Amino acid sequence: MSTPIYLACDIAEEKNIPLVSQLGCTDLKWTLAGGSSTESATFYIKLDDGGLLFVQLAHSNIGLSPTVQTTAQYFNGEVHKFETANRSARTFQASSDKGSVSVEGMTIVNNEEDSRLDVLITFDTLEIKFNFSIVDCGFQIGEGKTYFGELSPSSFICHQSFPKGTVRGTIKYDDETRDIVGEGYYIHAVLSMKPHEVATKCNLITLQSGDNALSLLHFDTPESFDFIPVTQASLILNRKLVAVTVKNTAQFISTSTDPENGYEVPSEVHYTMDGDTLDGRPFHCEATIKLTSLLMKVDVLSELPYILRKIIQYFFTKPYIYQFFDDAEVTATIGDEEVSFGGKAFFECSFLN
């Protein structure tokens, strides 16, 4: 017998509220939920010089005590820097309004007046400082939360997405300082359950292409929730949020078996998006990415503190993350109008069990 799932889109329809809630910096508040929760802030940034920047702060209560992990990845041609660190949760602090947070080696300051997030992350050999200025607005689906099993604060997942922001800053490594300029995608996620209770695998694509952008998040629930796919996607055209949809597909056209863990890792993925634009026009979009440039293959357990690793090992078999940076093509039909764009896209695929 399956367990019920209460999708954010279905809750919005039942309450007769809009499918899409538009967000600004004032809506970005850290919940620091109790129980077996994880909360993260993640930036996916495409740089104007063709490079990629990935920055994340993750606060977790899965173990016996809270843990905090900071991660940064910089890729630019022959330069590929990756640093991650497990920070003392005792150094983690939130501002009085829960909009800004800091931990040893990292700060995220919510500059509400300027619709901007100011980020600083430091490691022994890497320092990155940048501003993420929101373009147009962010969004969430309905009231933001999808519930698993029951309508309870201990059984939900929430994603607040900001699909385009301009980025300006600097990066220091190997006694060299570089200016960084680009545009990116920011997502604030809260999971009040253990990850394996929510998804078996998930994938994300984000493409920044001049004034346009596409982002899509997709995950499959486990057997206890009938393998239901949960998705949200957005389209930015001419620097405006045009469409947000939950009727999306992510099809792995071709895969190859990773001999280390047996996972079927995609080598080509095709996405579809359907629904209505924010101004009520019928909307259909397709995107394809061929995955040839593997940036990182992450053995999740190897990056975690010992106690947390043992706890997760009890629930999971082999959690792995694969990250790619490859060319993607997008075609969108809005009413009678067709729009196409393309460029380098960041793709991430996670296998949880």
UniProtKB/TrEMBL annotation:
It holds the Pfam family Svf1. One of its GO terms (biological process) is response to oxidative stress. The keyword Cytoplasm applies. Keywords: Cytoplasm. Residues 38-190 form the Svf1-like N-terminal domain. It is found in: Cytoplasm. The keyword Coiled coil does not apply. InterPro entries: Ceramide-binding_SVF1 (IPR051385), Svf1-like_C (IPR033394), Svf1-like_N (IPR013931). Residues 193-352 form the Svf1-like C-terminal domain. Its main location: cytoplasm. GO terms for cellular component: cytoplasm. PANTHER family: CERAMIDE-BINDING PROTEIN SVF1-RELATED, SVF1-LIKE PROTEIN YDR222W-RELATED. Belongs to the SVF1 family. This is Oxidative stress survival, Svf1-like protein. It comes from Basidiobolus meristosporus CBS 931.73.
